[in-house]
Amino acid sequence: MTEIIKTKNYSILLQNDIGHSIDEFIQEAEYSNVFLLMEENIMEYCWPILKQQSRELNKAEILLLEPGESQKSIEIAHQLWNTLSQYQADRSSLIVNFGGGMISDLGGFVASTYKRGIDFINIPTSLLAMVDASIGGKTAINLGKYKNQVGVFNPAKAVFISMEFLNTLNKRNLLNGYAEMLKHGLISHKEHWNKLLQLKELQPKDLIPNIAQSIEIKKAIAEEDPLEKSSRKSLNFGHTIGHLLESWSLKHDKEKERWLHGESIAAGLVMESYLSFKQGKLQKKDFKIIKNHIQKHFPKFPITPDLLSSFPEIIFQDKKKNGKKLNLTFVPAIGSFLINQNCTIEEIKKALIYYKENY
Questions:
Q1: CB half-sphere exposure, 139, CA atoms < 13 A
Q2: What spatial distance separates the first Cα and last Cα of the chain, rounded to whole Å?
Q3: Does 3-167 carry CATH code 3.90.420.10?
Q4: Cα separation of 150 and 163, whole Å?
């Protein structure tokens, strides 16, 4: 299987054996240094696969991180900048982001800011990174416990996707990416949504035929509005409340108990669909379809009294707010979107309570 999805600035290659294509890319660019950024778990489960395929990456300097969202911080970015400097990395160097969404976010940010910008490529190993994080040029780190507060828009020079890495994922991590695929269907492509609903099993073999469609949806929206001034805001559907929940978990839960991005976004999709319905934008039957399908696959996020009383402080750190107003994306029907929809704190609270009592 080989499929190339072209964007204005780079190519996304879907191929089982990506090593030869990566080697060709690196050789043609004649980089002075190549740095391979990954987490320890990727070193254990995915690097043995890629190591057999790519000669050039076997020559790279490996930058190894502990696993987890806590690595996506200014402290780790600072360490990586220092390491690049110690290796005398120059403007002709390349960072290879090999891993999930955390790695592409962090590595893209480090590359985009080191010496005012060096090249980077993404090799996503998680479903979430394949269909979302590695595509579209968003790079970011967290600020304390708040998600993606510091970052730049800067696309990778190329994205290399091997479906073979999906076989290293457990069901929870497949669901993590499935949430973003559902979002793509909800905001832009009813047929894609319907195909995802018809999947009997969420195994790699079932998901693979739908991955290219999700990538196409994300690519088209990001390309039309690269700096998120208009239509790209549609990709934020489910993310205002989803990031609130993810930030809450990041702050209050132990590392191994923290909710994954996709799990938080799935809850956000339900609650922001509920708000779409309550504001008269979405029909009740469509809201029920959305809620019931997500409830079938995703666990319930615990809405605690502490969360209900203190969520405004977190949500007003959201990048999408405008002054004291919260700007959300709503769905008026499955397969379409409305951006810049005003929502009050009280409405958000009602959505949290609805979810707590009815999910």
A1: 23
A2: 40
A3: no
A4: 31
Q: Which residues have CB under 8 Å from 25's CB, separation 6+?
A: 121, 157, 158, 160
Phi, psi of 155 (to 5 degrees): -75, 155
Other Cβ atoms within 10 Å of 277 Cβ, number: 22
Which range, of 22-26, 206-210, 295-299, averages the lowest pLDDT?
Answer: 206-210
Residue whose entry in the numeric block shows the structure tokens 């800011």: 113
Evaluate if pTM is beyond 0.85. yes
Query: Rounded CA gap, 118 and 210, in Å?
Result: 33
Q: List, as own/partner pairs, every contact residues 227-232 make where C-beta atoms lie below 8 angstroms and the sequence separation is at least 24, other chains included.
A: 227/153, 228/153, 230/339, 231/339, 232/136
Given the DSSP bridges, would you call strands 34-39 and 94-99 parallel, antiparallel or unpaired?
parallel
The DSSP letter of residue 134 is: T
Mean pLDDT of 309-327: 80
Average pLDDT, the chain: 95
Read off the pLDDT of residues 226-262 as tens digits, 9 standing for 90 and up. 999 999 999 999 999 999 999 999 888 887 789 999 9
The whole-number average pLDDT for the span 158-182 is 97
Residue 321's pLDDT band (cuts 50, 70, 90): low
Pick the CATH number of 171-358 from 1.25.40.10, 1.10.10.10, 1.20.1090.10, 1.20.1080.10: 1.20.1090.10
Per-residue burial over 202-231, b if 16 or more Cβ lie within 10 Å, else e, is eebeebeebbbbbbbbbbebbbeebebeeb
Q: Which helix (H) or strand (E) element contains residue 123?
A: strand 119-124
Q: Parse the chain into domains and list their residue ranges.
A: 3-167, 171-358
Q: pLDDT (tens digit, 9 = 90+) per residue, 110-156? A: 999 999 999 999 999 999 999 999 999 999 999 988 899 999 999 99
Integer Rg of the chain from CA: 20
